[in-house]
Amino acid sequence: MRDFLNRTEELERLRRLYASDEAELGVIFGRRRLGKTALVRHSLRDREEAIVYQARQKTRALQLDQFIELAAKSYPELTDVRRDWEPILRYLGTNDAIVVLDEFPYLVEGDESLPSVLQALFDTAFDDATTTFVLVGSSIAMMEDAALLGNSPLFGRSSLKLDLRELSFNASMQFFDSHPTPVEQVSAWGVLGGVPYYLEEIAPDATLAENIRRAILARHGSLHSEPDYVLRMELTEPTRYVSILEAIAGGNTSRNEIAGATGIEYNQLSTYLGRLERLRLIEREVPITEEPARSKRGRYRLRDHLFRFWFRFVYGSDERFDHFDGDAFTALIEPELPAFLSRPFEELCRLAVRKLYPGQTITDVGSWWYNGHEIDVVGLTDRATVVVGECKFQAGPLGYDTFSQLQSDIEELQWTPATGTDRRYEFALFSKSGFTRSVEDAADDREDLRLFTVEDVVDVLRSNGS
């Protein structure tokens, strides 16, 4: 296990919660594998008296017995309290305990009244206490129902809500002890993303290819069945959800395309897509110039990079891999990896564009597409300038044809500056393998064209902590 990395802001907010001179309730939620438990335990490393209970899918009676056994190590008198959640939690709260209920949804499954019990205690019993209760959960839907939505019992009681997300690119790269090249960093992030559990499973001094072979492709690799495990933990009937994720990973991104690829009725898709969005496994994106609620050109993408890699290359391929004597990576994956990594590279370019254009106030960044035209990077500003860019993560240098196509695509871009004046374009070209001489000459001759390498993108993201 590596030293705890990043989450500085979250740690500080938790520590302020514990130090408060009032009774406090904190809620930490987010999809599995993001390090919620590690975050809480790290925040409490100097507070040995804190009670951190890891719930499991067990009966109410067994959960309660195990909680009391754990809590009694710090509060021995607890064994004399009536064995029910209300008096047990009341005793701990009035004795100013710090109590963490990890995987809180499992406790609610065993006793649906628990959120209401906590609500009543915070409303009536803890006025003079300095206790802290922290509820942690991976089931975002159940955490919303118990504590986050307006009709939930604990709504309005929590003074801290931590919606834990993936680590930034910069933080993710700190999991590597060696110093990989910028291309290697982009490639690793493109496969693993910023999920701490995935990053902890890689060997920091091995190549990406070696890590993919060992952790993902090998039948007993630690990440070989990871997406399947997550889906089975979150969904009671995952079959249709798996079909949807496979379809999206295969390039079917509109609702019509997903319906056609999966055989699921178009009108039924909303329920399944909504559930996957709540689990933060997919997201709907629209052209940057359109409002999400009104756009009819939305398309879906897998948010988790490992899920995207797994559904693209691993799902259903074990028998196929067996024919390549343990080197399926070289034969089947490596030739297609640059194309696969193009999308993550585009994401990083969009993240970097504000820092690469510090003289512009870029208000919104995204991509754009319409009627066969597409622009990888579009940065809208508060004035008349729009930054437009194309990204190539390919073996050969980016050629002038890419710049020509970009100039053609912007003719279809519909955006009216707030100033009401004509638009002014700043062109940005991003390339893994440099640029042809004609592109370099054009950049020398024009003030509105800038060229950025992978090194430029990685350097600005790493130096700014993004």
Helix and strand layout, with pairings?
Elements: H1 8-19, E1 24-29, H2 36-43, E2 51-54, H3 60-71, H4 85-94, E3 98-102, H5 104-110, H6 114-124, E4 132-137, H7 140-148, E5 160-163, H8 169-173, H9 182-192, H10 196-200, H11 208-217, H12 226-234, H13 239-249, H14 255-262, H15 269-278, E6 282-285, E7 299-302, H16 305-314, H17 318-322, H18 328-333, H19 337-356, E8 362-370, E9 373-381, E10 385-392, H20 400-409, E11 424-431, H21 437-445, E12 449-453, H22 454-463
Parallel strand pairs: 1-4, 1-5, 2-3, 3-4, 10-11, 11-12
Antiparallel strand pairs: 6-7, 8-9, 9-10
Structure description:
With 466 residues, the chain is α/β, with parallel strands linked by helices. It folds into three domains: 8-163, Rossmann fold (3-Layer(aba) Sandwich); 171-339, Arc Repressor Mutant, subunit A; 342-463, 3-Layer(aba) Sandwich (Trna Endonuclease, Chain: A, domain 1). It has 22 helices and twelve strands. Helix 1 (8-19) packs across helix 2. The longest helix is centred in the last third of the chain and has 20 residues, at 337-356.
Summarize the structure.
The chain has 22 helices and 12 strands. With 466 residues, the protein is an alpha/beta fold. The two termini are 23 Å apart.
Poorly predicted ranges: none
Residues in helix, %: 40-55%
The number of distinct β-strands equals 12
Query: Which overall shape is indicated by the principal axes computed on the Cα atoms?
Result: globular
Quickly give the CATH architecture of the largest domain: Orthogonal Bundle
* SS element count, helices: 22
Strand content: 15-25%
- The average pLDDT is 93
CATH homologous superfamily placement of the largest domain: Winged helix-like DNA-binding domain superfamily/Winged helix DNA-binding domain
User: Do you know the CATH topology of the largest domain?
Assistant: Arc Repressor Mutant, subunit A
* Structural domain count: 3
Please give the alpha-carbon distance between the first and last residues. 23 Å
